Amino acid sequence: MKFLTALVGCAWLAFGVAQAADQINTQDPSALVQTAAEAILKDLDANREAYKKDPEKIRQLVDTHLLPHFDVQYAARMVLGKHWKDATPDQRERFIKAFYQSMLSNYGNALADFTAGKMKVLPSKADTDAERATVRTEIRRSNGQPVPVNYSMHKTAEGWKAWDVTIEGISYAKSFRDDFGSEIDQKGLDAVIDRLQRGDKPKAAAASAKS
Questions:
Q1: Worst-scoring range by mean pLDDT, 59-63, 67-71, 137-141?
Q2: Between 32 and 110, where is the model more confident?
Q3: For the chain, how many structural domains are there in total?
């Protein structure tokens, strides 16, 4: 399996924790990333063969535990950019669901090959009054080379949540926005939603699979 696909899978889905949401420190963005990543990777290490035999179990694990710590609606809004305000409530809801399922489909299975020793959360501290924060991490390739992976976080009523990941300087929210934006301009938002619902890979996901 290609390294970057596995890397993106871990980065986007590290918040799918295998423990109760109230055990996570949602008031500290770095602690949130550290605890959530450790929890899911510990679960994967313990049940790796079962997950490889039945990839649907990974999707169920992430689907059950991801949402408390990842702001899917906000991420979808940032991905749609200027097109969000023109979308109807029904289009927004369908896009959010289709985009989330697309992420699970394209990156979820790659998580089965990831191991806990490859990820390191770097020291960082958000200001008490800050509404946004960046949590810096490193994920090591098989040859030991570190790859910078930064999580974009924002503060919500439920605590800090992630909404984007930047890998080696490439923001995936921006990549998806660039991918979808031109198609929406040409064909409309419904065409993009239909493509995601069919299971077609967004260009950003297809590119990472080849890397």
A1: 59-63
A2: 32
A3: 1
